[in-house]
Amino acid sequence: LTIQNCEVSSGSISGYDAIGGLIGRGYHLNHLKIIDCKNYADITAIGKAGGIGGYMNTDNKTTSTIELQNLINYGEVTVSKIGTSEGTSEGTCGGILTRYENYFNAIVKNCINYGEIETTTAKSEKIGGIFMSGYHNVGTVKMFENNFNYGKIKTSQGYIDNPQNHGVPTPTE
Questions:
Q1: What's the pLDDT at 163?
Q2: Which of 110, 117, 133, 122 is nearest to 170 (CA)?
Q3: Is there a contact between 47 and 91 (Cβ–Cβ < 8 Å)?
Q4: What pLDDT score does 140 carry?
Q5: Is the dihedral of CA 83, 46, 112, 150 positive or negative?
Q6: Which pLDDT belongs to residue 53?
Q7: 3-class DSSP state for residue 96?
Q8: pLDDT the model gives residue 97
Q9: In sequence order, which residues have a C-beta less than 8 Å from that of residue 85 and are 6 or more positions away?
Q10: Backbone dihedral region of 163: left (phi > 0), alpha (psi from -120 to 50 degrees) or beta?
Q11: How high is the pLDDT of residue 129?
Q12: Phi, psi of 46 (to 5 degrees)
């Protein structure tokens, strides 16, 4: 799947889990490319949220590739316990992508987040300026270069994953 030259120019996108500006949840995406895209919309979720993408997964652990290049997020990304009866959702969010799983190779290049990123959930919070993590990544991040987070990162009790994502945490009041 290739998503290229797309722009969400305004508004807000909200939902329960795996919410993104361009793509929410993607399964069995063995070769995923998101290139030259922008998001200006604010993203809000109960579980996982990303400025460009929510949650991507593949079942091909030997040759699969995820490629994120020239992506910009301007929208705020918020994961909150609001809307759940127990308030126990796990809050994971990233300025560009929340998380990708099982990809053999990952290329993350020339991505920028300007939007504020915040989690206010009652369970463990994981947050990153560009992406939260390459969870269960069986290969390597082939390339992580020229990526920057300029947005404020706010978390009440969690931790910031991927320190190379840049950004300074600010405790939520």
A1: 41
A2: 117
A3: yes
A4: 64
A5: positive
A6: 92
A7: coil
A8: 87
A9: none
A10: alpha
A11: 83
A12: -85, -40
Angstrom CA distances, 93 to 17, 46, 89, stand at: 11, 10, 12
The residue ranges of the chain whose pLDDT is under 70 are 81-90, 121-125, 133-141, 156-173
Q: What is the pLDDT of residue 173?
A: 36
Residue that the structure tokens 């998101």 belong to: 34
Element (H, E) at 172: none
What's the token pair of residue 111? 């991505």
Does an H or E element contain 90, and which? Answer: none
Tokens 């652990």 correspond to 61
In angstroms, the first-to-last Cα distance of the chain is: 40
CA dist., res. 163 & res. 168, Å (int): 9
Phi/psi for 165 (5° steps) reads -70, -10
